[in-house]
C-alpha cells in the first residue's frame, strides 16, 4: 500500500466515523466526496452523492446567494462563508426543508480548490427550543392570570358578602330577585377565578395518597349519567398502576373537564377512552418529549374520536382563554386549568391531535415513592439486556414526521437493529417490494395517503406473513384502540427500553 492509498483510507475512515455530515466539493460546486452521515441526513443513496451539485441540497432561495458567495471568495479571497459557522436550511430528497448549522473550510491542492462542509442537523434542537418557549409563555401567562385572580377573589369576597347582608334586610320581592342574580354572578366569577388560580399554580391543594384508577372509576360513573346520548365512555387501566399524591377534587375536576371537552368535540357522538398506566421516564428523549424530570409517573390519558385540531390550534391549546368552541360555548380555561394543576402537582400535561381523528390529552403525575420503588424493583428482576439477540435483524420504520422518523431509526440502530425508513405506506410497500429481508414493520398509525398504519399492517401481514408488526401512536384510544385489538401497540411517547422490550418479545414469539 503506497502513501496515497494509506491517506485515502484514513480519510475514508475519518469521514465514516464522523457523526455530522461531511461533504467535499470542487470549485465548480460539484460533490466529490460525502460520508454516510451526509447521505442519511439528506435522504440520498451514498453512491449517488459524488458528481451531484451542492445546490441540490439547498432550497431555491439559498442557491444563487451561495453560488455568488463562493464565486466572490475564489475571485477575491473575501469570505462571508469560509470559516464562519452559520444557520441555513437544507433540502432533503423528499423535498422537505430542515434547519442546519453549516461551517465551510477551503483547501488549495495541485488539482485545484476544494471546499469541505460540515453540517449539523438542528431539527431536534429547534424543536426543543420551540417547546421551551411554549412552556415559558404558558408559565408567564399563568403567573399573570394567577396574580389577577388572587386579587379578583378578594374583590368578589367583598361583593358577595355585602350582597348576603343586603339580602337579609330587603323585603321587596323584585329587589331580592336582583340580589339573588347578582350573588349567582359573583359565584360564577368565583368559579372562574378558581380556574385562573389553578392555571397560575396558586390553588390551595390538599394532596392525598390516591389510587388514580379508583378516582377515575368514580368520575366515569358520574359522567355516564350526564354525557349526551351517543357518547361511549370507556376506562382502560393497566395492571399494577402506582399510587399518586395529588388533590382528589382537582383530579376529579380535571378528568371531568377533559371528558366534557371531548364531548364538545364530538357533536355527532363518538367514544371517549380514559386510559391509565405507569410510565418510567429514564430516557433522555422521553424526558424531552414530555418535559418532566426523570422518574416514575402515572399517565392518565383522555382520548376522543372528535374533530381534532390543526397544528395552529395544538400549539395554543393550553393557553388561557384560547378556545375552538363557538362564541359563548366556553371560557377557554378548561385545558389551562388542567395544565396548571398537573404542573403544580409536580407533573405535566401533553396534547396529541389530528384533524378529523380526535385528540388525546395526557396528564403525568409523579408516582408515590414507596409504590413506584417497589414496582421498579420488581420489574427489574430477570430483565434481559436491551440489545440481546438483535444482531442482523432488520426493522422497517414508517413515520411521516421527519424528526420522529430519524429518532426512531437512531434508537433502533443503537439497539443493534438494521433499519429501513419510509415516510408513508406507499413508500413502505415499495421498499418491501425490493427488500424482503425485513423482520419487523414498525409503523405509526396516523399518516397521510390512501393507507394509514393499521391498513398497512393488515396488507403487510397478508402479503408477508413471516413479518412481525408493531404499531405506535400518540392516541390512547379511538383509532389506536381499534388497531390495538389486532396488533401490538406502543403509545407515544415511549422509552427506548419499552421499544427494545416490545421488539424482543415479537421476535422471540416468531422464533417460537
Write the layout of secondary structure elements.
Elements: H1 3-17, E1 21-26, E2 31-34, H2 36-42, H3 60-76, E3 86-91, E4 97-109, E5 112-121, H4 123-169, H5 173-199, E6 208-210, H6 212-226, E7 231-237, E8 244-246, H7 248-264, E9 270-281, H8 284-290, E10 295-304, H9 311-316, H10 334-344, E11 348-354, E12 358-366, H11 369-380, E13 394-398, H12 402-414, E14 418-422, H13 425-434, E15 440-444, H14 453-463, E16 468-473, H15 479-484, E17 489-491, H16 496-511
Parallel strand pairs: 7-9, 13-14, 13-15, 15-16, 16-17
Antiparallel strand pairs: 1-2, 1-5, 3-4, 4-5, 6-8, 9-10, 10-12, 11-12
Helix pairs in contact: 4-5, 5-10, 6-7, 7-10
**CATH C-level category of the largest domain:** Alpha Beta
Structural class: alpha/beta
Number of strands: 17
Question: N- to C-terminal separation?
Answer: 49 Å
CATH architecture of the largest domain: 2-Layer Sandwich
Strand count, sense and barrel status of the largest sheet are: 5 strands, antiparallel
Shape: globular
CATH topology of the largest domain: Heat Shock Protein 90
Mean pLDDT: 81
CATH superfamily of the largest domain: Histidine kinase-like ATPase, C-terminal domain
Strand content: 15-25%
Structure description:
It is a single chain. The protein is an alpha/beta fold and 512 residues long. It has 4 domains: 119 residues, 2-Layer Sandwich (Beta-Lactamase), CATH 3.30.450; 62 residues; 170 residues, Histidine kinase-like ATPase, C-terminal domain (Heat Shock Protein 90, 2-Layer Sandwich); 127 residues, Rossmann fold, CATH 3.40.50. 46% of the residues lie in helices and 22% in strands. The protein is built from 16 helices and 17 strands. It has a 5-stranded antiparallel sheet. It has a 5-stranded mixed sheet with strand order 7-9-10-12-11. It has a 5-stranded parallel sheet with strand order 14-13-15-16-17, with helices on both faces. Strand 3 and strand 4 form a beta hairpin. Helix 7 runs antiparallel to helix 10. It is globular. About 3% of the residues have low confidence.
